[in-house]
Amino acid sequence: PLGILSALPKVAKADTASLIGVLNYALTLEHLEYRYYQMGIESGVIEGADLAIFTKIRDHELAHVNFLTEVITNVLKGEAVSEPGFDFTAGGNFMPFSDYPTFLALSQAFEDTGVRAYKGQAGNVMENDVVLTAALSIHSVEARHASMVRRLRTKKGQDTVKGWITNDSRGSLPAPTQAIYDGENNVSHGGVNVVDLTGIDAGAVSEGWDEPLGKDAVLGIASLFLAS
C-alpha cells in the first residue's frame, strides 16, 4: 500500500477526523500484531523453518504500521496513536513465548480478528476511495496471514481447521476466543439466503465470506492483551 501515498492528496473530501480515528484504530491492531511477532522471533520459540514464515509476517505488520502512521501524520495531518504496552500472557493465562502451540494459537486468533476488523471498518472509509483501497489491501494481507497460520496449526496436528473459518467454529482455540468467531455462521447476503438460493450447505456458504466485526468487539478482544 505504500505506493498509494502519492494519490492520497487527490481523493474526494471526507471527514478527516473520522478517518484519523478509523486509521488509529487500525494502527493499534497493527502495533499489537507487529510486537507479538517481533517478541516471538526474539524469544526463540518459533520452530525450524517456520521462522522464515513469521519473519515475513512480522515484516508485513511493520510495513502496515509505517504506512498507517505515514498516512495519519503526513497526509491527514493528524496524530498517530503510540504503541501501547502489551501483555501477551493476558495476565499469566498464556505463555506464547515459551510454548510454540500457544504462540500459534494466539497468532491465529489475532489474524482472524484482524481480517474481520478491517472489513468492519470498510463502510467508515468508503467516502475516501484511496484510503478504502489501502484498507482493503491490508485486509487481504491479513487474510493470507490467517490462512497460513490456520493451515500450519492443522498440519502440526494442533487443530483440524481449514485455511478459512467454517460457521462460527473456533476449532481448538480456548473458549475466551469465541467472540472472534461469533457471527461467522451468517449465510444471508444482500437480503438473500444463499443456502436457499444455491442448495449449498450452510457450512460451505459460511466459508465464502468474512463477516465484519465491530470496533467495540475488536477492542474488547485486544484489551485482554493490553498491559495494565
Overview of the molecule:
The chain has about 230 residues and is mostly helical. It is about 55% helix and about 0% strand. The protein contains 7 helices and 2 strands, in the order ααααββααα. Helix 1 runs antiparallel to helix 2, helix 1 runs antiparallel to helix 3 (about 100-120) and helix 3 (about 100-120) packs antiparallel against helix 4 (about 130-155). The longest helix has 28 residues, at about 15-45. The chain is globular. The two termini are about 35 Å apart.
Summary keywords:
228 residues, mainly alpha, two-stranded antiparallel ribbon, 7 helices, globular
Summed up, what is this model?
Helices cover 53% and strands 2% of the residues. It has 228 residues and is mainly alpha-helical.
Rounded radius of gyration (Å): 18 Å
Percent range for β-strand residues: under 5%
How does the major sheet shape up? 2 strands, antiparallel
The low-confidence runs, each spanning 5 or more residues with pLDDT under 50, are 2-14
From the structure provided, what is the oligomeric state, counting identical versus distinct chains? Answer: single chain
- SSE order in H/E notation? HHHHEEHHH
